[in-house]
Please model this.
Amino acid sequence: MDDAYSTQLAAADSGTGEADSLERLMALKDADTFLVADGWGDMAGGADGLFDHDTRLLSRLVMTVGGARPSRLSSGVSQDNVFFTCHSTNRPLPPMGGRSAPAGVLHIERRRFVWDRRLFERVRVSNHGMEDVLLPLTYEFGADFADIFQVRGTPRLKTGKLSPPTHDGRRVTFRYRGLDDVERMSCLAFSEPPARLSGGRAEFMFSLPKGRVQDLYIECGPDACEAPDEVRFRLSAVQARLAMRRRRRRGASVRGPRSPRFNDWLDQSRADVALLTTDLPTGPYPYAGVPWFSTPFGRDGIITAWQMLWLDPSLAKGVLTYLASRQATETSAFQDSAPGKIMHETRGGEMSALGEVPFGLYYGGVDTTCLFVALAGAYAKRTGDFETIRALWPHLIAATGWMTKEGDVRGDGLISYQRGADTGLSNQGWKDSEDSIFHTDGRFPKGPIALLEVQGYAFAAWQAMAELAQALGEPDPQQWSNRAERVRNMVEEKFWMEDQGFYAIALDGDGEAVRSIGSNAGHLLFTGLPSRERALKVARRMLGADFRSGWGVRTLARGQARFNPLSYHNGSVWPHDTAMAAAGMARYGERRAVALLLSEIYEAAASFNLRLPELFCGFERTAGEAPIAYPVACLPQAWAAGSVFLMLQSALGVRIDAVAGSVEIDNPVLPVGIERLNVTDLKVGDATVDLSFQQVGLHTVVVPRHKAGQLAVRTIS
Model:
């Protein structure tokens, strides 16, 4: 998501282990606390740790049995994303008191979850051997209180003071006073008193008779902790699971009754969106991803909410309300803010508080403000909730004020960007790495830069304002429609490349077209700006071999300067990018293309244990081989998880208009290999309906079921 990725890749290339730690990532999250560990449950460096509000509270937690790491049998995160469990067994134990134990007689279950800013862990050891066992179990631990940007690779010349850890019987307390003069602490506690305890090591010696079980409970959090026990573990586990269940059950559901594997993907994707969603005072907000982006991002939150809008509008309401509360009111080059602009990201760590990085409250995203307005229009149409829109109206007016003033840096009616300070992002669209925008000869364009897809978002925003103004009885709604048409005409005139049958990726500061061929055009189709003739030309090219890897759509067409299937933005495949392109194609009637792309993304997901990463490499698909992972991709990632639901809506041709009280299904197509799909408990205003889709010969038919309330369901074929 930003230039810091170059640091991460350098670390991965140098063999520091960061790539390994992300590849074996086992992530848990609750609100602003998340945990990253390896397949054994150990936190041993790199990206590992227990984090709270962008600060690492626990940087090391490694368990050994008899001085050795146990032999792992299996491990994973539960399908609802609440529990991590590792099953392992002992290696041969050293002789103690004349007794020893051979390998494989102990079953060691390590089970943990995160709840209410705390890590809860239970280690359960069962003796299945023929003899009693003396069990030496050791934990090594540490807390560095590193800021998330330090962990990602941003160097610091100076840090605060880390106090020596203190311990008393069953607890170890760590303290750090930052350069921001804030004291941060964490406490690690055990249910049993260790035989030896120091500031970095706890040694236990358990006598375990044959057939018996020994439990050890552990907790860690950002404040003083009580001695953990079974009751606290069980009660907190129930609360964590119930909270996750509530988030997963928001809105309608989609199921394919005869495809359990496809259902598993849908369940995992829904669970990942729920995992990343934090219930803020303003409503639910999907955080961008773990580990690097477990925080509100403007663009990511908006797009994820849009992907889920047809099923669960509550996400869009929460995102719009939160972003309105963080809308800029002042101009700052360091924050890249100006009145009316919508936040790009916010952070809570020491480096952000000190201004060492600008991301404490950062506005350096050129597209977020337009997307905010466009999502408000889509939300109003989906829900008819004009009470919320009326409350947001001053924020929408302020956002359009930014679009017509500071957002139009070039003064030509297009939205463009040039970063306010050198500490900010050099590229400020969704492809925000340093090398993502370039001319056909590889040169980087001079600013201000007007990105193609951002003009589409602006077009959608102006259209939304016209519809909202009309519905609210605001004066002169036609002014917004006129702006939309002016943007449409300029894009068609300035970005279209007749010789390529495609749109340029951007205009540079001289007004010259940046003629690279990128997936940005798929986002333009999503907004409905292009003429039908041009849209179909773009769709045909994006479905060709230069774009399609066989696992989805590449971010850059093969053969372009700087094309690299290993890159972050110049040839990789991003599931959300493919989904936006697919939804754009569907808008122009290309539903079978959507079904094809959905099938490819599904097959990619199957290779990643049904959990789509942020991105993966764009190498051409080879028979019998899986897609190649990108080494430092976030997993899970909100808009990757939401991609399946946007593509399903697009393939099924579902359009919901709560204002008109209607659900329209336009020429539905089911994914390849899926013969039936059911959408249940779809709420439209005060009405509900279930939709049953079934393949009959060469056609997909839909049957409304259990309709309650005033709702018209229409099909177009």
In short: The domain at 250-666 is CATH 1.50.10.10 (Glycosyltransferase).
